[in-house]
Write a structure and sequence with these properties.
Structural class: alpha/beta
Bound molecules: flavin-adenine dinucleotide, FE2/S2 (inorganic) cluster
Radius of gyration: 18 Å
Helix content: 10-25%
Strand order of the largest sheet: 4-3-7-1-2-6-5
Distance between the termini: 30 Å
Order of helices and strands: EEHEEEEHEEHEHEEHEHEEEHE
Largest sheet: 7 strands, antiparallel
Strand content: 35-45%
Number of helices: 7
């Protein structure tokens, strides 16, 4: 892990409220793994003071891409950055996904901006010759992200939107439920990233069918390295005992069955 001043190669609007930024760093591109994240200082002033966590969307040659949604001051400041400016980042942070290799299909479920770390994951799974099926859940057709990227990796892609403007009408978990009801025996692992409610449902669905499941958790983070104790999550130690882990240091990827929601 290093603190770096990196050049912004690109920072583009990709959909309403969503941007993609490419930063140049041979070190990060070589070392960051799918599911790991960077702590990014979007603003050069004191407001907002804290860095913001952003996943590695994809590592391309000497660069790392981040895909982000503007929700507050930190992401807004980031969206105003221009090509050629510099950005202070710390990373790679956290633990990434375990990349399996299986003759069965890996099923990826993305809810909203939760899709951000899943392209790098799909790429790693495809490198290991896995068949990959992706469910992209979005609010409307304009918010469907990364379809082209997944298709160019030769993943099967299913789209669901909350208003039915693209694909089936519903949530990512509805599509996951129907995928599992048609062929759950052929699924090696479920990988998911999205809102907490979605991840809880994914966990229940995977557990009911005894399918291994890895989820990427989101917590508000300050330090990003396990020092401030600001991102605890309750996990099962044994059947009856629990303990707290830090999402930043021990995650953000966890085995779904370990989380005591
Ligand atoms: C490990 C990790 C990886 C992430 N990767 C990405 C990514 O690739 N792309 C992306 O767009 N976002 C990602 N996020 C979420 C992102 O960090 C937050 O959206 C960002 O910190 C918001 O900062 P802000 O200053 O714009 O908003 P703030 O002003 O800090 O907050 C605006 C609103 O968003 C809510 N909020 C802020 N942070 C979070 C959070 N972590 N979880 C849930 N609600 C939150 C606040 O409660 C508030 O309502 C990730 C979070 C984590 C923990
Ligand atoms: S953000 Fe400080 S301990 Fe996780």
């Amino acid at each position: 892990m290093k603190q770096l001043e990196v050049e912004i190669v690109q920072n583009e609007w990709v959909a309403p409220n969503f941007y993609k930024m490419r930063i140049e760093s041979a070190y990060l591109a070589a070392n960051i793994r799918p599911g790991q994240f960077l702590e990014v200082k979007g603003s050069s002033c004191l407001d907002p003071f804290l860095r913001r966590p952003l996943s590695c969307h994809r590592a391309v040659k000497n660069c790392v891409d981040m895909l982000y949604e503007v929700v507050g001051k930190g992401m807004e400041a980031l969206s105003l950055k221009k090509k050629g400016e510099y950005l202070n980042v710390v990373g790679p942070l956290g633990h990434g996904f375990s990349i399996i290799s299986s003759p069965k299909t890996a099923l990826i479920a993305a809810g909203g901006i939760g899709v951000a770390p899943l392209v790098a994951l799909a790429e790693a799974l495809r490198k290991k010759k896995n068949k990959v099926c992706v469910i992209i859940g979005a609010r409307t057709k304009s918010h469907v992200l990364c379809e082209k990227e997944f298709k160019s990796l030769r993943c099967e892609v299913n789209i669901v939107t909350e208003d039915g403007s693209r694909g089936h009408k519903g949530l990512a978990t509805d599509a996951l439920m129907s995928a599992l009801s048609t062929g759950s025996r052929n699924i090696s692992t479920i990988y998911a990233c999205g809102p907490t409610g979605m991840l809880k449902t994914v966990t229940q669905l995977a557990k009911a069918r005894e399918i291994p499941c890895q989820i990427s958790l989101e917590e508000r983070m300050a330090c990003g390295v396990g020092v401030c104790l600001g991102c605890p999550i309750r996990v099962r130690k044994t059947l009856t005992e629990f303990e707290y882990k830090m999402v930043c240091k021990d995650g953000p990827i966890f085995r779904a069955e370990d989380i005591a929601w």
